From TrEMBL:
Secretion signal span: none
One Gene Ontology term, aspect cellular component: mitochondrion
EC number: 6.1.1.21
Name of the featured protein: histidine--tRNA ligase
Keyword terms of this UniProt record: Aminoacyl-tRNA synthetase, ATP-binding, Ligase, Nucleotide-binding, Protein biosynthesis
Enzyme class: ligase
Protein family: Belongs to the class-II aminoacyl-tRNA synthetase family.
Single annotated GO MF: identical protein binding
Catalytic activity: tRNA(His) + L-histidine + ATP = L-histidyl-tRNA(His) + AMP + diphosphate + H(+)
Membrane-spanning segments: none
InterPro entries (alphabetical): aa-tRNA-synth_II, aa-tRNA-synth_II/BPL/LPL, HisRS-like_core, HisRS/HisZ
GO process terms (BP): histidyl-tRNA aminoacylation; mitochondrial translation
Domain Aminoacyl-transfer RNA synthetases class-II family profile as annotated: residue spans: 30-362
């Protein structure tokens, strides 16, 4: 009997019975399952996107879900802390891919490709704080379309914006706005506002939060946390409130401070050309040149853009409220060069469609 009691006690310690160690059945934080019904919606969305990508002549590629850790290092700036590293098991050091753009650049450099139009639809991983109801996850699909190679200035950039316009119109998600800016205009603006070179990127990531928090909070982050002078912050404040179209570009080209800055002048010149192409495409109605758009990623070098869905409810509100970003992208002419031993650059521009965000909107509708 003593033996049995001892064995029973051991069994209790092992937690064999349904004691206090009840295992919670759930998916990990920031992930989800897809039911057959949800898959049906998702397939429809994927098909619409793929059809558009193919119509624009893109070929499809695939790359591994994990990359060498080194491949991803130093490409994302402040976002690097969101990368999932795989446990070191004594072989190569690996990380889960954070997006499809850096693996694409690695693919181009590795295969010495200097000209391709490609799309890639696959899952990416980020240790973000998920807001699942708004379609933000730690594992999610990205649908990317990119054009690599030398072309007439701003034609590939305009095509990427046209693609976003086509897909968002096709999916009938409601009213949307595509905000456009240029990394060079931002850097030029920072320079003339008195931001030291070393602070460009970190101030840039503060500006990037303007769609989520009011200017006052962004300003206090710049001054308080990032040590920017209040005067410089206020000068930035005057610029980042501006948004418009060709008229604003013309006005800034005449701006006494900006027009003296080489970078800003280049960026504004290209922006003007871009708007001329967008006018020919007949899509300027949905496009806004917005000086507050910053897109945090470090690898952008030229045009950047982001598409947001606008809320329908209120007719009497002057400024439409945005639900959140459903697509984003830009030009990254230096990324392939980072992987090339000779530093050979391949100009690239691309767009990523935020399928999860779109999906959560369509899903709420079906319900």
């Amino acid at each position: 009997a003593k033996e049995v009691a001892k064995l029973l006690e051991m069994k209790a310690q092992l937690g064999g019975d349904e004691g206090k160690h009840k295992f919670v059945l759930k998916t990990p934080k920031g992930t989800r399952d897809y039911s057959p019904k949800q898959m049906a919606i998702r397939e429809r969305v994927f098909n619409a996107i793929i059809t558009c990508f193919k119509r624009h002549g893109a070929e499809v590629i695939d790359t591994p879900v994990f990359e060498l850790k080194e491949t991803l290092m130093g490409k994302y700036g402040e976002d690097s802390k969101l990368i999932y590293d795989l446990k070191d098991q004594g072989g190569e050091l690996l990380s889960l891919r954070y997006d499809l753009t850096v693996p694409f650049a690695r693919y181009l450099a590795m295969n010495k490709i200097i000209n391709i139009k490609r799309y890639h639809i696959a899952k990416v991983y980020r240790r973000d704080n998920p807001a699942m109801t708004r379609g933000r996850y730690r594992e999610f699909y990205q649908c990317d379309f990119d054009i690599a190679g030398h072309f007439d200035p701003m034609i590939p950039d305009a095509e990427c914006l046209k693609i976003v316009h086509e897909i968002l119109s096709d999916l009938q998600l409601g009213d949307f706005l595509i905000k456009v800016n240029d990394r060079r205009i931002l850097d030029g603006m920072f320079a003339v506002c008195g931001v030291p070179d070393s602070k460009f990127r970190t101030i840039c990531s503060s500006v990037d939060k303007l769609d989520k928090m009011p200017w006052e909070e962004v300003r206090s982050e710049m001054v308080g946390e990032k040590g920017l002078s209040p005067e410089a912050a206020d000068r930035i404040g005057e610029y980042v409130q501006l948004h418009g179209g060709l008229d604003l570009i013309e006005r800034l080209l005449q701006d006494p401070k900006l027009s003296q800055n080489k970078l800003a002048k280049e960026g504004l010149g290209d922006m003007k050309l871009l708007f001329e192409y967008l006018t020919l495409f007949g899509i300027t109605g949905k496009i806004s040149f917005d000086l507050s758009l910053a897109r945090g990623l470090d690898y952008y070098t030229g045009v950047i853009f982001e598409a947001v869905l606008l809320q329908q409810e209120n007719d009497h509100v002057e400024e439409p409220v945005s639900i959140g970003s459903v697509a984003g992208g830009g030009r990254y002419d230096g990324l392939v060069g980072m992987f090339d031993p000779k530093g050979r650059k391949v100009p690239c521009v691309g767009v990523s469609i935020g399928i999860e965000r779109i999906f959560s909107i369509l899903e709420q509708r079906v319900e």
